[in-house]
Design a protein that fits this description.
Elements: E1 2-3, H1 11-14, H2 19-25, E2 30-37, H3 40-47, E3 57-64, E4 67-68, E5 74-75, E6 82-89, H4 98-116, E7 122-125, E8 129-132, E9 135-143, E10 151-158, H5 169-174, H6 178-182, H7 188-208, H8 211-219, E11 227-232, E12 235-244, E13 250-254, E14 257-261, E15 265-269
Parallel strand pairs: 2-3
Antiparallel strand pairs: 1-2, 3-6, 4-5, 6-10, 7-8, 8-9, 9-10, 11-12, 11-15, 12-13, 13-14
Helix pairs in contact: 4-7
C-alpha cells in the first residue's frame, strides 16, 4: 500500500495519475494507491473499520482484478481504465435514500464524461450504470459500512483509455471506452479530478436541496419509454419504463398496473435506434 502521506513513494512519480494534483485540487484528504488490488470497494470497507482514518479517503488502483458490481455482476478492469472508491461521510443523506445517492453519482459521472466527450450521448441506466452512445461506459457500486455510520463507500469504474476494439463482438456490442468514442487518450488525472469535483458538488446538492436534482436525473435517464425487465430481488417485473420517482424508484407500467422498483437490476431493455 502507498499512502499519500509518504510523499517520497515511487508510486507518486510513476503512476499515470498525478496524486499530488488529486490531493491539492479536490476535497479528498487521504489517498491509498495500489498498483494492483482485488477491489477498491473492499479496500475502502476495510479502512472503514479503522476509527482513526481520515475521510474523505480515496482508494485508487492501477489495476483491479476482482471488481464487483451489483449482485453477481463483475467489473472488467484493464490497463487504462479508471477505478476508484471513496470512503466519505454521507451525513444528511439517510441510508433509505440509497437509490438517490446512486442516481446522483451517476449524474455526476455523466457530466464529468461530457467534459471530455461533449458530442456523445451520455445517460444514466437505473440504478447504477453510465452509458455512452447506448453502451456501458461506467459502473457504480455504493455500499454502507456497518460499523461507521453515516459513512458510505462509492465505487466507480470507468472505461477510459482501455480500448475495447480487441475484445470479442459481444463485449463491444454492450460496452464502450472513452478512447474509442472520442478517438484519443484522456489525461487520467484530469478525468479523476473532474469526477471528484462533480461528485462533491452533486452530493452536497442532494444533502441541501434533494428536490432540485430530480429533474436532472430524469433528463439523463436512459430507460424512459422503453420495454424493460427488472430483477427486483427475485421478482421479475416486465413492462414499459415510466420514469423515476423523486425517491429514486424506477416506475414500470406492467399489464397488471404500475410497479415501483426501489432496488434491483435491469436485466434487459429495448434499445432505441441511434
Amino acid at each position: 500500500m502507498d499512502r499519500l502521506g509518504c510523499l517520497e513513494s515511487r508510486a507518486l512519480h510513476v503512476t499515470s495519475i498525478d496524486l499530488h494534483r488529486v490531493r491539492d485540487e479536490t476535497f479528498v484528504r487521504e489517498i491509498d494507491f495500489h498498483w494492483e488490488l482485488a477491489s477498491t470497494n473492499d479496500q475502502a470497507l476495510k479502512w472503514a473499520e479503522e476509527e482513526s482514518i481520515v475521510t474523505p479517503l480515496l482508494v485508487l488502483a492501477d489495476k483491479q482484478t476482482q471488481g464487483r458490481g451489483r449482485g453477481p455482476n463483475r467489473w472488467l478492469s484493464s490497463p487504462g481504465s479508471l477505478t476508484f472508491s471513496l470512503l466519505l461521510p454521507l451525513d444528511g443523506i439517510p441510508a433509505d435514500r440509497l437509490p438517490q445517492i446512486s442516481l446522483t453519482v451517476g449524474l455526476a459521472i455523466c457530466q464529468a464524461l461530457e467534459t471530455f466527450a461533449p458530442l456523445a450521448d451520455l445517460a444514466i441506466k437505473w440504478p447504477n450504470d453510465v452509458y455512452l452512445n447506448e453502451k456501458k461506459a461506467a459502473g457504480i457500486l455504493i455500499e454502507m459500512p456497518p460499523r461507521r455510520p453515516p459513512h458510505g463507500v462509492i465505487g466507480v469504474g470507468i472505461n477510459a483509455n482501455n480500448s475495447l476494439t480487441d475484445y470479442d463482438a459481444d463485449v463491444q456490442s454492450k460496452s464502450v471506452s472513452l478512447i474509442d468514442a472520442i478517438e484519443q487518450e484522456v489525461d487520467l488525472s484530469d478525468l479523476l479530478i473532474t469526477c471528484l469535483d462533480h461528485l462533491d458538488r452533486y452530493l452536497n446538492l442532494l444533502r441541501e436541496n434533494p428536490t432540485a436534482i430530480v429533474d436532472q436525473w430524469r433528463a439523463y435517464h436512459l430507460l424512459e419509454g422503453r420495454q424493460v425487465e427488472v430483477d427486483a430481488y427475485g421478482d421479475r417485473i416486465r413492462g414499459v419504463c415510466d420514469g423515476i420517482d423523486p425517491d429514486g424508484a424506477l416506475r414500470v407500467v406492467t399489464p397488471s398496473g404500475l410497479q415501483r422498483c426501489i432496488g434491483g437490476i435491469v436485466t434487459d431493455f429495448e434499445r432505441r435506434e441511434l
